[in-house]
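Can you give me the bound-state structure? Components:
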Amino acid sequence: MSLVITDLCVDHGAIRAINGVSFSVSTGQLAAVVGSNGAGKTTLLRTLSGLNKATAGNAHWKSTNLLQAKPEKLVRKGLSHVSEGKSVIPELSVAENLDLGALWRRNKKESAQSKEAILSNFPRLGERLGQRADTLSGGERQMLAIGRSLMSKPELLLLDEPSLGLAPLVIEQIFQSIRDLTTSMGLTVLLVEQNAIGALKIADIGIVLNLGKVAIAGPAQTLIADPAVRAAYLGY
Amino acid sequence: MMKLFNTILIGITSGSIYSLMAIAIVLVWRSTRVINFAQAGLALASSFVGFEVLTRTGSFWIALPVALLAGAGMSAFIEYFFLRPLLKRSGDESQEIFLPIIATLGLLGVIKAILSFIYGDQNGTISPPVSDKDFIVGANSISMSPMRVLILIVVIVLVSSITWLFQKTSIGLALRASSYSPEISRLAGVRVDLIRTCGWAISGAAGSAAGMLQTANGSGSLSPDSLEFSLLLVFGFVAAVIGGLESLLGAVLGGITLGIFISFVLMYVSGSLVFISAFLILLLVLYVRPQGIIGKKVGRRA
Amino acid sequence: MHKLKANNITRIFAFLFLALLVYLLSNHIDEWRSFQGATVMFYVVAIASIILLTGYSGQISLGHGALVAIGSYTAALTQIYLHQPIWMCFVASVLVTALFGAFLGFAAARLSGPYLAGTTLALAVGLPSIANQFRILGGEQGINFDVGWPPKSLGADFTQYKWFFWISALATLIAMWWLHNILRSRYGRAWRAVHKNEVAAELAGIHVGRAKVLAFTLSAGLAGLAGALLAMTMNNVSPSVFPLYLSLSLLTGAVLSGVTTLGGVMIGAVTLVAIPEIATSVSSRWGDSGNLATYLPNLVVSVLLLLTVFLAPRGPIEKFRAHRSTPERISQTKSKAQ
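Here's the bound-state model for the whole set.
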C-alpha cells in the first residue's frame, strides 16, 4: 500500500465535509473516487494536496505525511494535483503552462525530456505551443492541465473531474489517455469523477463517497457489476 | 513651434520617471492585489540611502545601484512582515478588505516620521551626475540636456531588464503565473509566497530608481516632507491607471502620456494647476475607459 | 411603535445629558483645555464622517482631509465675500462640500476599493496646492475665518475658546443626532445591505449606485462641517492646515474608534488630541532639541494606525466585546458542527 488514508476528517467552517474517510491505494493502481454532488470528493483531493487543512486523521503517501505539508512542497515529493475545471492559466501560452510545472526542477535536461514525452502523448498540444491557453478547446485544455502536472514528474496524480464540461467523445479520449498514462508511466492515480461509470470502467479500484463517508469500496469491476450499488449510488 | 517641441521633450523625460513609479505600483498590484501607498515612502527612504552613499563616495554610479538594492530590500521587508500576515488573515468580512490599503498608508506615515527623526529639517542633495544644461542647436536651445538623456537611458535599461525578466526567465514565468492564478501555481510547485516577495522587491527597486532620478532631475534637494514624492506617488498611480493597472507596457505608455500632458499644462496653463489637471485626467480615464488605454477586460467593480 | 418612541425619548435625554456635561465641563477648564475641547469636537465630526462612509456604506476614502479643506475654505469665503452670519457660513460649508462629495461619489460608486483609495489619496495630496492658483484663496498665507467675540450677554469673563467650544459642541451634537437617526432609517439599512453584499442588495431592490452616492454626499457634508469647525478654532485657513498627515490622522481616528460602529467615536477623537500633548511632555522630559516634539506625533499616529490594523482591526471596543463573548461563540460553532 502506498497511499494510505485513515479516519480523515475535514471541516468547512461549521460543516464537516469529510467525516472519517479511510481507504488505501497500491502503487501503480488507478483508483476512482465517485459520488454525487457534495459528497466531499473535491475536498478530499484538496486536503491531500495541501490546499485544505484536515481536522483529524492521517494521510500518507509512502513515507510523506500529506497533512502537514504545503502544496508546493508536496509537488517536490512526487504528488501532483490537477484541480477542478481545467486547471490551466488562460493568460499564459501552452508552452508556458507546461514549463510552469517544471519550474522547480533543477535538472533542465530532464524536464526537457519530460516535455518531449508529454508532447508525444498529446501531439495536439505540440501544434499549439505558442498559442494562449484560452484559445484551446475544452478537451485540449484538459490535456494541457494533465500535461502540466506530468511536467513535475509525479508518482501520485490527483485528478479532479477531468470530464467536466466536455463532449462525450472527448471524455472517452481523456479517460483512455489517463488509463494509458497510468500504465505506461507507472503512476498511481486518484481520479475523482461525477461520471461514475466512465471512471470505474478504466479504474482498478473504486471508492464511493456519500455525505463525507465511504459508502462502499472495492474492485472497480465488482462495483459496476453490483446492481445494488448501481441503484443506490451510480444513478441507474 | 520650438516651444511645442520642447514641451513634448520635457514631457517625455518626466513621463519616463512616472513610468518607473507606475511600474512599481503595477508590479505590487499584480503580485498581491494591493496598491502600495508606502511606495512614495520607500522611494524617499532609498533616495536618502542614495544620498548618503553619494556624499561618502562622490559617485552617482555607486549611489544609484545601492539605492535600488535598498529599495528592493525595504519593499521585500514590508511585504514579508506586514502585508503577508495581513493578507493571510483577512477573511470575508468586508471591512477587512480595506485593511491592507490602510496598512500601506500607515507604513508611509511611519517611514516619513522615521526619516524626519533622522534628518529633521536638513535637506539631502542629489546633484545631477552630468550636465543639466540644455543643448543648443543653431540659435535655439532645446529642452534636452545630457542629464535628460541619461534619465531616458536609465529608464529604458531598467524597463527592458524588467520586461526581459518577466518574459524570458523562469522567475518571470513564476511571477506572471502567480499573479494570474496563485492556486494553480502552487499546485505546479511554485513557491508563491516567495515569488510575491520577489515581485515586491523588483517593485521597490523600480520605485527607488524613480525617486533618485526625480530628485536629480528636479530641484536636487531631498526632504522628508517633500511634496515632490507624494506627487510622484500620485502621478505614478494615475499613470498606472491610465495604463490599466495590469500591464507593464500600459504603465510605460501611461507614464509618458501623463508626462506630456502635465508638461503642456505647465508650459501653457499654470504651474499650480498641474495637480488638479492630473486628477481630472484620472477621473476622465475612470469614467470613459476604466480598463485603461490598452486594457481589454471590463469590470473594475469588485 | 411604543417601544420605538420610548427609545427616542431615552436618546433625547442622552443627548441633553451630553449637552449638560459639555456645559458643566466648559465652566471648569482653562483656555487651553477649551481649545482642546473644540478640537475634539472637530475630530468627532470628521471621524464620524469617515465611519459613515467606510463602516456603513463600505467605501473607502483616504482623502477626507481634502473634503475638510473644502469645508474650511467655504466657511471663510462665505464670511469674507458674502458677509453672511456665522451660522450661514456653517450651512454653506456643509452644502458646498456635500455637493463636491456628490460629484466625487458619482465617480466613486463605480470604483472598487483600491481605485477609490488611490483617487481620494490623490485628492488629499494635491487639492491644497490649488490655493496658490487663485488669489481669493490667499496662497500660503491663507485667509481668515473670524467667528468674533462671544456675545456680551454671556458675561465679561466668558472667554474666546470657551465660546468656540460651545459652538463646536452644539454643532457636533446636532450632527451626531442627525447621523444617528439617518443610520437607523431606511437609508442606513440600505447602506448596511450594500456593504454586506452588493449583489444581494441589488436583488433586494436597493439601487446600489444611488445608495453609495448618497453616502458619499452625506459623508462629505459632515466633513464640510468639520472643516468649518476647524477653520473657526484655527482662525485661519491655509494649505498647511491640510497636509496628507491630516487625512492619515482622521483615518487613524476612525480605525481606532472602530470603523464599524459610531459608538467609539470619542476614543479616536480624544486620542488624536492627546497625542501631541503627550509627545511634547515626553520630549521635554528627555530634554530634546525639538526634533522629537515636532515629529513624534506623526510617528505615534502612524504606529497606532498599524497596531490597530494588526491587533484590533474592528477597533478596541469590538476587540473587547469579542474577548468577552469568545467562549459562547466557540460553543455555538461546536453545536453547529455536530
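A couple of observations. Chain B has one domain: 2-288. The domain at 2-288 of chain B is CATH 1.10.3470 (ABC transporter involved in vitamin B12 uptake, BtuC).
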